[in-house]
Structures are given as C-alpha cells and as structure tokens.
Amino acid sequence: MHFAKGLFNVTYRFPRLMLAERVDYIQQWSKQLTKILGVSLRVQGIEPGKYPEQHMLLANHISWLDIFILDSVTVSRFVAKSELRSWPIIGRLCIGTGTLFIERERKRDTARVNEAIVTALSEGHCVTVFPEGTTGCGRQLLPFRSSLLQAAIDGNATIQPVYLRYTDAEGQYSDAATYIGDMTLAQSLWRILGTRSLHAEINFLAPFPTDHKNRRTLTQFIEARICTAHHALNTQSSNA
What we know:
Layout: H1 2-13, H2 19-36, E1 39-45, E2 55-59, H3 65-71, E3 77-81, H4 90-96, E4 100-102, H5 107-122, E5 126-129, H6 150-154, E6 158-167, H7 185-193, E7 198-204, E8 208-209, H8 215-239
Parallel strand pairs: 1-7, 2-5, 2-6, 3-4, 3-5
Antiparallel strand pairs: 6-7, 6-8
C-alpha cells in the first residue's frame, strides 16, 4: 500500500507541486518506508541539508535500498542504471522523482548523462552518483569510475563523499540489505523484512569544491576518502 500510494502521488500529484513540496514528500515517504521495513537510521558527519543546491553526493553502493535511505535525510536526483527503469513500481517511482538513467555499456550515453547532470546542477538541483557503477557486497569497495565526475567539474558542484553501510544492533556488518548477483527484488525485500535490528548508517564526509580538478584525480581523491572511512569504521566495529 505504501508503494502504491507513492506511485499514485508521483504520477498524478507531482506535476502540480512545487519543487520544495516534492522534496518534502520524497523525504517523508522514504522515512516511512525505512520504518515499514524495520530499518533504523544512523546519521554521522556533516549533513548537507534537505536538498542542497548545486551539490553532488558520491556514495558507495550496496542495495536498491540505498536510494531511499539517502532520501530519508538528503533528497537528490539519482543516477541509476537503465535497467531500474523497468522494475515494477520502484522503476516508476524513480522516473517520477527525476532519476537520471544511464546505459553504462554505451560510451555515448555517458556523455548524454554528463550533460543532463550539468544541467541539473546549474538549475540548483542535488545529484547523487554511485561511482562503483553497480552494487557490491559491502565488505569491500569496488573500483570507482571517473566517467560521471566530469559533470561535477563542469557544473561547478560542491562535492560530498558519503560512506554507507548496514549493521546489526551491535554495530557489526550485516549483509541483509545486500543486493547482488541474481537476487530478485522480492527476495531482497523478504530478506530485509526477516532481519531484526537492521541499521542503515550514513556517514557524510566533509564536502569540498571541485576547483576544476582533473576528473581522474578527483575520483581517486573521493575513493581514498570513502576507503578511509570504510576501513576506520569497520576496524572500530571488529575491535568493539
């Protein structure tokens, strides 16, 4: 019912709402979804606000749930793989909330999406990119891709790295939200609903201006920041 309500609103109400009203709805809907799924939020670091202007979030990627976890705190327009567009319900929700879809196998599509991100940033939007390009297990990070970081430079965005992880009540790693391999959405939902005391942790690292850095250098810097947070937080957990 919650998904159906969201789908109705983004399809029929959103075209008549102001941006601020849409942002409020997305945030509240996402917060309610996390409660329904029994996921508790832990937010650490420098929160960028509800919808920071000309801002780009760069986060590691573990699950489809990442989108709604982030939207519970900071709403943004996401860059997602084109396959997500055809997912039942969630695909329509993503379309209605302004997600930018990319066909990663096509190099020409990267240029198109970079232009769309620059336009969004110049219009004052907040955009989230998952530079790993796909979901990982969460125990280690995948190599970061630099292809979509040119938009941050061209759009003169403020960049903020974000480290995401899912833990149990004791702060230890949990793979309950992991969405990889041949897992279906239904299987993923069932797994999340069957897990007690699942916590989604959002670690907002310090934001910084692009300063016209080379995109490969910029990618390496962001990857190093998120890797440092990954090792520091997981070392803390294993020693606790």
